[in-house]
Amino acid sequence: MVHPNKRQWWVIWVVAAAVLLLWPLSDSPSLVVKAAHFAADPRGTLPVLPEPLPLGLGDDADVVMQHDYQTQAYYDAYDSSAWVRFRMKVRDWTPGVSVGTERQILMVFVVLGALLVWRLGAPGTSTERADAEG
Around Cβ 127, how many Cβ atoms within 10 Å? Predict the structure, then answer.
């Protein structure tokens, strides 16, 4: 039975870890994106930009004032510093591709990793020659 050499194991582990961390679920982002969102705002203290007011609520002065207050708080925080602006962008970031496309890209990464492992174990590489000589 053929066992992977040290370089092949490194490729296998790196590809496996990357795919596990980057694989998105159908209804939520990948672990890396979730970790980035959490790292940007761990306590949930940054204000969130409210959705636009739905039609019909524009006549309610209290709702409009609350919406304007939330919007103003968001832009005040956004304009306060470059660090806060960066954190807000990371917290609100979503991948620009669909879940299916992300998975296809990751599968290309897996196939390329498998080809690299296969190539690293091909006869004639330095590890094969060292095994044959020794």
Answer: 14
Residue 106: which of 91, 120, 95 has the closest Cα? 95
- Decide: 120 and 12 in contact? Cβ < 8 Å: no
Q: What is the C-alpha to C-alpha distance for residues 80 and 117, in angstroms, rounded to an integer?
A: 49
Give the lowest-confidence range in 12-26, 30-44, 113-127: 113-127
Give me 77's structure tokens. Answer: 């925080």
**Consecutive H or E run containing 124:** none
Q: Which amino acid is at 87?
A: R
Measured in residues, the chain has a length of 134
3-state secondary structure of 59: coil
Query: The pTM is what?
Result: 0.70
Taking only the tens place, the pLDDT of each residue in 87-119 is: 999 999 988 888 888 899 999 999 999 999 888
Looking from the CA of 81 toward its CB, the CA atoms found within 13 Å total: 4
Pick the closest to residue 86 from 34, 29, 41 (CA basis). Answer: 41
Query: Please, what's the largest Cα pairwise distance for the chain?
Result: 86
